[in-house]
Amino acid sequence: MTLSVLAVDDSRTMRDMIKIALTQAGFTSTLAEDGEHGLEVLDDMTPPDVIITDINMPKLDGFGFIDAVRAQEKHRGIPILVLTTESADTLKARARKAGATGWIVKPFDPAKLVRALKMVAG
């Protein structure tokens, strides 16, 4: 299964790690450095199969990013996987309410990330 993934994270190191994991899995990836940039990139690309987003980012955090994606009819059905250092149940519930499909805590196991992406993409 080849998936296209938009990964939104303010850490260059994390974006690089995600890109390596996705490339090794045979997925295509597009990267964005924060929620604002993620929305710009999303509007300029063919809709991805899955979106990965961090929560704690400047300009527009992950919750705002998820809300903005879900507010757009053409992007409502794209699964969104949160990849963050946060693990509080209240934040997970807030992300689910906003429209997140799943949650993985950093540091991440690349194989687990790939499995989660395949699962949420259906």
Question: What is the fold's blueprint, element by element?
Answer:
Layout: E1 4-8, H1 12-24, E2 28-32, H2 35-44, E3 50-53, H3 62-70, E4 80-84, H4 89-98, E5 102-105, H5 110-121
Parallel strand pairs: 1-2, 1-3, 3-4, 4-5
Can you tell me about this structure?
This protein has a single domain (4-121), classed as Rossmann fold (3-Layer(aba) Sandwich). The protein is 44% helix and 19% strand. It has helices at residues 12-24, 35-44, 62-70, 89-98, 110-121; strands at residues 4-8, 28-32, 50-53, 80-84, 102-105. The mean pLDDT is 95. It has a five-stranded parallel sheet with strand order 2-1-3-4-5, sandwiched between helices. It contains five helices and five strands, in the order E-H-E-H-E-H-E-H-E-H. Helix 1 (12-24) links the parallel strand 1 and strand 2. The protein has 122 residues and is an alpha/beta fold.
How would you sum up the global shape? Answer: globular
Q: How helical, in percent, are the residues?
A: 40-55%
User: In percent terms, what proportion of residues is strand?
Assistant: 15-25%
Which class best fits the helix and strand makeup?
alpha/beta
Most strands sheet: 5 strands, parallel
CATH homologous superfamily descriptor: Response regulator
Assign the CATH class.
Alpha Beta
How many structurally independent domains? 1
How would you spell out the order of helices and strands? EHEHEHEHEH
What is the first-to-last residue Cα distance? Answer: 10 Å
Low-confidence stretches: none
Average pLDDT, rounded to a whole number, is: 95
The name CATH uses for the topology is Rossmann fold
Instruction: Provide the CATH architecture.
Output: 3-Layer(aba) Sandwich
Number of helices: 5
Q: How many beta strands in the DSSP annotation? A: 5
Strand order of the largest sheet: 2-1-3-4-5
Rg over C-alpha atoms, rounded to the nearest angstrom: 13 Å
